[in-house]
Design goal:
Elements (H helix, E strand, L loop, with lengths): L6 E5 L6 E5 L2 H9 L5 H10 L8 E5 L2 E6 L9 H17 L7
Antiparallel strand pairs: 1-2, 3-4
Helix pairs in contact: 2-3
Length: about 100
């Protein structure tokens, strides 16, 4: 999902070009600016943000897939920021703390 889906066009005044307002930009910037610098916080982030979408499922009957439920995470407008935050936490645990994280 691209960020442009959450922008709104507002006319500046008659005859001028339009400006875009991104509703989620302040939250995206805040999440991207979080710097994981302690072990306890890194573990908390990894615990709270799942490694894969818990909603994606395949419903099978007699060995055949009947319904595939796509990952709902992709509908989250902050998905990329949460994945990035989890990645930074994992990198901190591996690089700075020397932990092997699964």
């Amino acid at each position: 999902m691209s960020e442009s889906q959450f922008t709104f066009d507002f006319p500046l005044s008659s005859g001028q070009s339009r400006s875009k307002f991104d509703l989620f930009k302040p939250i995206r910037n805040w999440l991207d600016s979080i710097d994981v610098r302690d072990r306890k916080s890194a573990h908390l982030v990894c615990k709270l943000i799942p490694a894969q979408c818990p909603f994606e499922r395949e419903i099978k009957m007699f060995g055949r897939t009947i319904v595939h439920i796509p990952p709902m995470c992709k509908l989250n407008p902050l998905y990329d920021q949460f994945v990035g935050l989890r990645f930074r936490a994992l990198c901190y645990l591996v690089d700075e703390c020397g932990e092997m994280v699964a």
